Amino acid sequence: MEISNLKDKKVLVLGLSTTGFAAAKFLIRTGAKCFLSDGNTLGEENRSKAELLEKSGVKLEFGNHTKEFIQGAEFCVLSPSIPPDSHVLSMLDELKIPYFSDIELVHRVKPADTKIVAVTGTNGKTTTTMLVSHILRQKFTAPATGNVGVSPLDYLCPGEYGVSEIAALSDKEPDFLVIEASSYQLHYTKCFAPDIAVFCNLTPDHIAWHGGIDNYFLDKAKMFSRMWQNAHSILNYDDERVRNIQTGANRHYFRLNTPGGKDDAYIKGDMVYYGGEALISVSDVPIVGAHNLQNVMCAVIVAKNAGLSNEDICAGIKSFKAPKHRCELIIKKNGIAYYNDSKATNPEAAIVAIGAFEGKRTVLIAGGRDKNTSLDEFCALVKKTIDKAVLIGEAAERFAAELKGVGYNNIVFAKTLEEAIDAAEADKPDVVLFSPACASFDMFKNYETRGEAFRNYVSKV
Question: Which long-range contacts (CB under 8 A, 24 or more apart) does 89-92 make?
């Protein structure tokens, strides 16, 4: 389906999420007749958004998806969390209305000179996205967008319709859109094919939504199969499934353990290499852990193929700070370093964070709403690395049972996060690491709120 002039055409948006709000504003800027339908009732947290959209000419429906409201749309832009078996998608199929995610729309309507860098994987996507954007901005306009909380549609300015409040975030079309692409967004794509694509790693996550890890992988992988021969695919060599992905694009690998070829990034001694050229010392990388070295290598390959100099790349890496809630150093006080890794919502992410502090006396705070995935590797690493585990939330009992099952018994239970922090710092370790390995929803609204609670408490004098 071609999308060209949308003026006066009816276009549907499903869901008043960050994605839906951005999509509606973009469509109004094109002159389209935008209809937004949300199955939830309008809450206070979204009232100001709804009022702005209504003022801009968007037709709104809340509490239901009605056939009368939906029918006649040229296409539909979905909020990506809508499950594939949703009744409203059956209705769209019945009405023969094509539907896809915001990143698919971006692919179809972006200016020809704007290139897309897409970053996917299970863990490390946000840090890699933010780092790539930070480095590219040494020379280009390259905002970080997508699953980081800002839709790429917010940076596209196709027309002059509507009011100033719905204007694009920039009046200049970007050189690059750096997009953190979630598995949900990628599931709802038809022809999305970035100029540069990164696959960080693959571990089980969102399995129920996708119907198994094979489908989860295929949703992440399909953009690579659509890429053309002048594009660049950047793949984790140490992950066999990712390494062997099907793509028509140029292949670049990043590797922790083995030297690579002329198009690869790897670690050798204390240096990060691209091809045969040493770029930056590991000791000059400001974010900790082997996983962050992988993120740095991804960013190096992107930047080299975008045409940046070694000097610009190194300057970008050295000046980068970890994104919030991702192995983020909050404070050092009384000889203890406090790290907030609230974004670690699964055991695999926590494993990566724990591994970054091997050799230091570390107390781990973990727990929350259990995703019921295997804890075998998590428990083995805790036993090897962690001096004490402080457990919170609904998952605390299962985590404790699994840890005791491998012979690890230095476990403390806490009813609140604040109580857990007090227990963690009582032994005066080198590091207090808050890496929950669980979702937040038993005690907090989301992982951001959880991370801010950690930050606020440990930052008290």
Answer: 91/65, 91/67
